From TrEMBL:
Keywords: ATP-binding, Kinase, Nucleotide-binding, Transferase
Signal peptide coordinates: none
Swiss-Prot/TrEMBL catalytic activity: myo-inositol + ATP = 1D-myo-inositol 3-phosphate + ADP + H(+)
Domain (Carbohydrate kinase PfkB): residue spans on this chain: 211-282
Claim: Nucleotide-binding is one of the keywords in the record: yes
UniProt-listed GO biological process terms: myo-inositol hexakisphosphate biosynthetic process
Organism: Eutrema salsugineum (Saltwater cress)
Protein name in UniProt: Inositol 3-kinase
InterPro entries xref list: Carboh/pur_kinase_PfkB_CS, PfkB_Carbo_kinase, PfkB_dom, Ribokinase-like
Length: 345
């Protein structure tokens, strides 16, 4: 197969045969069961792929999605999964002993569908690939194929370092070095980890290989790349269920990158979508007016950055403009958050 050179290496005479497709998402949908004090509180569509495609679809970013489910898959989704008739859909039970609004949860994978194989992935080229497994469905050879066919690959570390207790399915983490993926990591563009997961990698080593983004719930996120470290401020949210925040964050980050924002601005969009997600149980339905306001702010920000001759590293203004766009119709008081501190307007 003839591959297009990555955009940075394309010249007017490059043999660019077929335009890239935009985004490839690889990861299984799952059924999430939320449990508090021994009782089932909610059952929802889960899996990073579902949260991410929700963000991309709502933002009009076209994507292909490769996911496997079993005969018992119960949800209508806009990107059809591969159905494996002899298997059951991946199921996660999430135990919230402190209440489902609380960030602390214990996850158990109680059923696992099949892994995604390189042959399940289309032989096209993509601008962005997203390796976003939740239940061990991304294999080293799956990621190897993704880095071959995608110009930039963003990886959620949870796809690489999760292992599952053979008896009760409890999720445990192994160090990235022992994950079986270490040899591919120099070929990925972005590695996203929550602050708990970041303890299972050497950030100093990884930031030399790719852009590392560490999310910290209500505190926002930090970006590490080479010798740079950038804190990206959060948005206020009334947390109801933390499930999917990291996934929606990654979706927002990729929407920003596809739109041509620089990485801190794109991460700010990630924070925005993460903050909206924690206000819902299951998949958030994004308000159309809010989405339009956010799109307008993104276009405005792009123009502003194009006009400015010097590198514009001041993201506070973009944050200050996104905040009211997000809170306009919300019961939360619109507040300005600067460097993680909230101030009344
Ligand atoms: N309580 C919260 N308030 C505001 N934003 C939040 C909150 N929780 C999560 N977010 C946003 O979602 C992102 C991902 O959340 P986090 O909890 O760090 O990830 P994960 O779901 O992978 O554990 C955060 O960086 C932040 O931008
Ligand atoms: O909450 P989060 O860490 O972003 O991502 C979650 C996964 O950790 C979990 O395994 C899955 O069942 C949820 O649907 C969601 O994808």
């Amino acid at each position: 197969m003839t591959q297009n050179p990555p955009p940075s290496q394309q010249t007017p005479n490059s043999p660019r045969r077929i335009p890239n497709r935009r985004v490839l998402i690889v990861g299984n949908y799952c059924h999430d069961v939320l449990i508090q004090n021994g009782a089932v509180v909610a059952e929802t569509l889960g899996g990073a792929a579902s949260f991410i495609s929700n963000v991309l679809d709502s933002s009009s970013v076209s994507c292909d999605l490769v996911s496997k489910v079993g005969h018992d898959f119960r949800y209508e989704v806009s990107h059809a999964p591969i159905v494996v008739p002899e298997k059951e859909t991946t199921v996660f039970e999430a135990y919230f002993d402190l209440g489902i609004g609380h960030a602390d949860r214990v996850l158990k994978r109680v059923s696992a569908c099949d892994p995604i194989l390189p042959s399940d992935i289309p032989d096209s080229r993509f601008d962005f690939g997203m390796a976003v497994g939740v239940g061990g469905e991304i294999l080293p050879e799956t990621l190897e194929k993704m880095v071959e066919i995608c110009d930039v690959v963003a990886v959620d570390i949870q796809a690489l370092i999760r292992v599952f207790d053979p008896v009760d399915g409890a999720v445990k983490l192994v160090n990235l070095k022992e994950s079986g993926f270490h040899h591919v990591l120099h070929r990925i563009g972005f590695l996203k980890a929550s602050s708990d997961e970041a303890l299972f990698m050497d950030v100093e080593e990884m930031k030399r290989l790719c852009c590392v983004v560490v999310t910290s719930g209500e505190k926002g996120c930090r970006i590490y790349h080479k010798d740079d470290e950038t804190a990206v401020p959060p948005f206020l949210a009334k947390q109801v269920d933390p499930t999917g925040a990291g996934d929606s964050f990654l979706g927002g980050l990729v929407v920003g990158l596809v739109e041509g924002l620089d990485v801190p601005d794109a991460a700010l969009l990630g924070n925005l979508f993460g903050s909206i997600t924690v206000e819902h149980i299951g998949q958030p339905k994004f308000d159309l007016t809010m989405l339009q306001r956010v799109k307008d702010e993104v276009q405005r920000r792009k123009k502003q950055c194009n006009l400015s001759s010097s590198q514009n590293n001041d993201h506070d203004e973009f944050h200050a403009r996104l905040s009211p766009a997000r809170f306009q119709d919300s019961p939360l008081q619109p507040k300005l958050l600067v460097n993680g501190l909230s101030c009344d307007r």
